Each structure stands twice: as C-alpha cells, then as structure tokens.
Amino acid sequence: xxxxxxxxxxxxxxxxxxxxxxxxxxxxxxxxxxxxxxxxxxxxxxxxxxxxxxxxxxxxxxxxxxxxxxxxxxxxxxxxxxxxxxxxxxxxxxxxxxxxxxxxxxxxxxxxxxxxxxxxxxxxxxxxxxxxxxxxxxxxxxxxxxxxxxxxxxxxxxxxxxxxxxxxxxxxxxxxxxxxxxxxxxxxxxxxxxxxxxxxxxxxxxxxxx
Length: 210
Description:
CATH architecture of the largest domain: Sandwich
Radius of gyration: 25 Å
Number of domains: 2
Oligomer: single chain
Shape: rod-shaped
C-alpha cells in the first residue's frame, strides 16, 4: 500500500503541501507543467513552462509554488481548504521537433484543517434540594472549532457521559458542542469538562459545592 501523504494546519496559518517531484538543479520550471488540483476537478494552481496559467478566485491571493520542490503553500488556510489534493508534474521533452509532456508523478496529499474551540464553559443549576442531596442540571459548551469534537466529563476522577449535541451549518463549517447531564449531588464534587478535536484538547474544571 502506498503511504498516503498528509498535511495539517490550523485556520489562519501558512501550510505547505508536499509534491511528489523535485526539479533537478540542472533544470528549471520552464521544462515542466505543474498542476495542483483539489478533489481531482478543481485547479488550485497551475504552471506551464514557468508561467502561471490558472485562475481560481478562492485561491489566487493565498497560494504560492516553490519553484524547486513544487510545494504548494496556502496562507492563510481556511476550513474549506481541507480535503484531498493532487500534485501532477509533466516533464516537457522535445521529440522530433514537437514538445511531448511526460508525466513524472501524480500523487495525492490530504490536508486536515483544525480550528480551535473556545475554552469550555460550565454551568450548574440546582433543580431541587433536600437534606441528603441536590439535583443539579449541568451544562458544558464550547464553540467555533473544527473538526467535530468529542466532549467528555470527569466527576471526582471518575469518567461520566454527557448527553451531547453538535451544531454546524455544514460539514465544512465550525462546530458548536453542548453537553448536558443531570447529577444527584451528595458531596462536594470536582467536575472537568474536556473538548477534544484532531489531537488537541481544551478543558475547564469547576468545584460543585454541597
């Protein structure tokens, strides 16, 4: 199996997508055609014989090509930039007075974009109270991040499960997440709420006093 190339970045950063070919020092970009495509159909950036030949409004002012290793630089990246890309390189050879493009490489690379979530916000509302215990409705929410997160809870070092809901305008829009939980509180309890996404995590703790 071919090892799939992956690039990662956070919204607003500069990210480089590696290409499958490096132009030797004895040659220049003028001997090549280079196509960077997204989802196979959309041309992000293209060069032929050293000249830029593509026009893509979404990418035009945010992309650069390294003329030696053909890395595609995108800055600043957006959530919509995530997905599969392809670097296609053709070497232009002169054969019997005509220029023949020979494909040198054609390789995919997947870009994963992360947007940071807000620090989780915890609220606790007492629904009913007695001498022995309090019935408390707990809520934890975080917003504005990507991709869809996991939300978890720990009560006095024991894992607990949120009743979670996620809201997003589309699969490529930021997510808001909220977890709710009803708790029978009989003692002082430390609650930690964590939101995890793409290897990153944000967490907040709150002491629930009885």
